[in-house]
Amino acid sequence: MSMSIGSESGDEDVVISEINTTPLVDIMLVLLIIFLITSPVVLKLQKIALPTETNQLLKTKPDNVNIVVNKDGDMYWNAKRLDNTDELFEFLKKEAVKLPQPEVHIRGDQETRYEFVGKVIYTAQRAGIQKVGFITEPPDKG
Fold it and tell me: What class is the 65-134 domain?
């Protein structure tokens, strides 16, 4: 008498070791429908006034310092040409002690090398200026 432990014929059922995801998908769809139905109700319960935002153009104050740097590296304090950064430093040192301290606005030509603008920024930092900004043209709306 011999006993057969494993059947080599395909008569017996094969054990399936895969996870059945159909009930999981059913539950997820039900939850999705519940959230879609209840979310508008939750949003309408609390009446709040959201803040509105308006863009305001920066208006140049008369006491702001305007420095122009052209593409050749020449510096201008308002309309006066400055010979070097030492002369700029003396002007900025006088402005740095004023209360409130004026802002320094740098207008650089788009073809100006960064080296020239960097010298102006470094000189303003050495003089003790707190606020340095760059003036650019707004993009065309057309």
Answer: alpha beta
Q: What is the 3-state secondary structure (H, E, C) of the chain?
A: CCCCCCCCCCCCCCCCCCCCCHHHHHHHHHHHHHHHHHHHHHHHHCCCCCCCCCCCCCCCCCCCEEEEECCCCCEEECCEEECCHHHHHHHHHHHHCCCCCCCEEEEECCCCCHHHHHHHHHHHHHHCCCCEEECCCCCCCC
Q: Where are the domains of the chain?
A: 65-134
How far is the CA of 128 from the CAs of 60, 70, 85, 116, 117, in angstroms?
21, 24, 14, 19, 17
Question: What's the rounded mean pLDDT across residues 61-78?
Answer: 88
- Out of 45-59, 63-77, 83-97, 126-140, pick the least confident: 45-59
Surface-to-core class of residue 20, CB atoms within 10 Å of its CB (0-12 exposed, 13-18 middle, 19+ buried)? exposed
Q: Is the pTM of the predicted complex or chain greater than 0.70?
A: no
**Amino acid found at 131:** K
